[in-house]
Amino acid sequence: MAAIDDVRARLGGWAGRLLASDCAGFEDVAPVVFAGDGAAPALVARPRDAGEVAAAVRAAAETGVPFAVRGGGHAYARYGTVAAGLVLDLRLLGGARIDPGRRVGVASAGTTAGDYTAAAAAHGLATGFGDTLSVGVPGLALGGGIGYLSRRDGLTLDNVLGAEVVLADGSIVRASDDENADLFWALRGGGGNFGVVTRLDLRLTPTTVVTGGLLAFAPDPTTVGALLAAAAAAPDELSLMVNVMKAPPAPFLPAERHGTPIVVALVCHSGSPDVAGAVLAPFRAAGTLLVDLVRPQPYPDLFGLAPNQVGTWPAQRTGFVETVAEDAAAAVIDAVRTAPTPVAVLNLRPMGGAIARVPRDGTSFAHRDRAVMATVGAVSPAGAGAADARAWVARAADGLSLGGAAYANFVAEPGAAAASDAYPSETLRRLQEVKRQVDPGNLFRSNLNVLPAEAPAAVRA
User: Fold this and answer.
1) Is residue 298 one of the residues assigned to a domain?
2) Separation of alpha carbons 51 and 185, rounded Å
3) Is the model's pLDDT at 389 over the cut of 80?
């Protein structure tokens, strides 16, 4: 019996939830958000609880089939699928539960940021994520989470209080500061390397109306530096994302700007509305303002600014910078102008604030002292101009000296050096030791993979 047929036999009782390519509904569950080479999995298993997750994990481990775990299916590197293997699709484990008294939210494995944010907002609460509602909460939280509340509340992973995890041997454990503390440290930054997270407990913070939205500027290189300087001087309640990009054909932008470079600032002030105007003044004064859509609004409404990227192919390089000098900003603006795809962008996310106050070794996200997370990306229709997009990204990223460090959640093409870029050497060694303890066979490898440390000689003997 072939290994994949063995898996199918072991999970044969999952009526309607174990789908092969010859099953009705397979085409609905096989794809992930970002297009790739078109290679499909052999089986998609859709568990309903942690016990079924454990059964699928044991089946994969004991048969040796290629194995991937999918939450929201939103990874740029397409970690949530594997050619001719078994995909564990967690989206039936969706749903968020909010405990407003304890200010704790529970996100099951398939919960999206949108589902959770809406449930929390009903109680005037929030946990900060990134900038897109369709991402899966565990996948985002285990790698970082830099978004609209990060300078006030820290990264998403800084607000993880505990996790339920299915390990490679099928056991179900709890990880927190008080239980399996080494595993808990590794999960918060180390991604899906250590098991299948079936539940996260997350800290909630009172958040109702914020003052935020979009500011669009003419493409002046000085504007980029002025926005970053304003963010560095702002209180923690102000979080910012800057995009140097081609203007989309949006009705709120002047038609003559469509398809040409602009500088966009996405701002969120989550402090008192009484001081928001003064805090935002330096941002509005950063350049020639074309559009000002910043206003008081419910926090979840900010996420409507994110584009729909389903079915697109991303080329991307990510890293960290201290600032973007005027000549570098000018070069990026010129590069965007001649980019081979309609969507080409330099995305800048200032850090600092609460992010920087967590000790460097407090979690396995070890880039606390960096000023700005930077990403150069180009998005194109699947298979159309992929090589040109990749080459453009490489040139633009080299111009910014992006390299030697990486934000794990934004790695699009992981290679041999990806883990050492995402994790400094001391962090990587510690992650490898935890990996050796909980997944020595590297079952969980469809991710930014951390290899298990080699067992000590006495153990090998």
Assistant:
1) yes
2) 24
3) yes
